Amino acid sequence: MNKVLDFKLDEQIMEKINRFSRTALTAEQVYAFPVALCDNEIDRDGERFSAEALGKLAKLFVGKTGIFDHDPKGEKQSARIFDCETVQDETRVTSCGEPYTCLYAKAYMVRTAGNADLIAEIDGGIKKEVSVSCSIGKKLCSVCGADMNRDPCGHIKGTYYGGKKCCHILDEPTDAYEWSFVAVPAQPAAGVVKHFGEEKDFSQEVRSLEKRLAAESARTQKACDMLKREIISLSFLCRPVMAVETVKILTDKMSFEQLTELYHSLKKQAQQNDEPKPQLVSKKTDGGKSGENSRFRIAG
Ligand SMILES: [Zn+2]
Asked: What is the pLDDT of residues 68-120, one digit of tens each?
């Protein structure tokens, strides 16, 4: 990692920088510095980049301009990324259990009288919070791999499933727009804030919620159907016996709670009817038939 952070303005680096300048610059004319753009750790939105996505972003960010947007004088200073790469830290594991990978960029600016203070601040390590803007092709559920834009699942970000925290994996970036230094870090731990090119798409969240509600409703419907069947069988054991059609009409518009209540009251009634009767019945049957029947009744 130090190799990325410590670099000298040697010939190789100057050649890379000069690919972006109209006139050939000398090492004395430029100021170059490393920037940590983003990583594969879960961010405050419950999202994280895949290692592959970071690799693609490394290519997309080369040549992109960064802005220092909090200059009190309103003078916007800018720097340009001339090199970008992902660096894996073998000693660190993300909360998802993957090797920690960070996207590092090298940026340069032409030294002027106006940016001497800014350069001193960067050298002093003050301006470290970076905000990046890019567009992401795919958002995948970390639990089941569902494409959250096309076919969202019911898993909830931040919730644990089988001991693993659910997050959305940002995959297949399509473009990188810009990056900027911001005054206040919204994500203090990482010092990186991510914004996405596209507006926050609430329709995804709504679709996901609708899907969960539909699943919930299907489960309730299934439970209601089961209760209705139980009620019909129980109604045979109760006196007076009601016709199946009558029971069906009666239970048709009942809510799950009402069905549960009716089921329990019928069950209670059936048990009460059942308690003294088996003895009477078994006595009768015992009289004429084999003991098998009585054993069956007691067991039932
Ligand atoms: Zn899922």
From this structure: 865 555 567 789 999 999 999 989 999 888 999 999 999 999 999 888 888 88
Residue with tokens 């069956």: 296
CA of 177 to the centre of ligand 1 (A): 29
Helix axes 291-299, 277-288, angle to 10 degrees: 160
CA–CA separation, 26 and 18 (whole Å): 9
pTM over 0.85: no
The answer to whether 130 touches 182, Cβ cutoff 8 Å, is yes
DSSP run (H or E) holding 20: none
How far is the C-alpha of 75 from the C-alpha of 90, rounded, in Å?
40
Least Cα distance to 115 among 61, 83, 73 occurs for 73
Fill in the amino acid letter for 131: S
Domain spans of the chain? 2-200, 209-299
Q: Are 129 and 52 in contact (CB under 8 A)?
A: no
Using N-to-C axis directions, what is the helix angle for 244-252 and 202-237, rounded to 10°?
A: 150
Q: 44 C-alpha to center of ligand 1: Å?
A: 19
Distance of CA 281 from the midpoint of ligand 1 (Å): 55
For ligand 1, the distance from its centroid to the CA atom of residue 255, given in whole angstroms, is 30
Strands 168-181 and 47-49: parallel
Compute, in angstroms, the gap from residue 154 CA to the centroid of ligand 1. Answer: 6
Token digits of residue 46: 């419950």
What separation in Å is there between the alpha carbon of 138 and the centre of ligand 1? 14
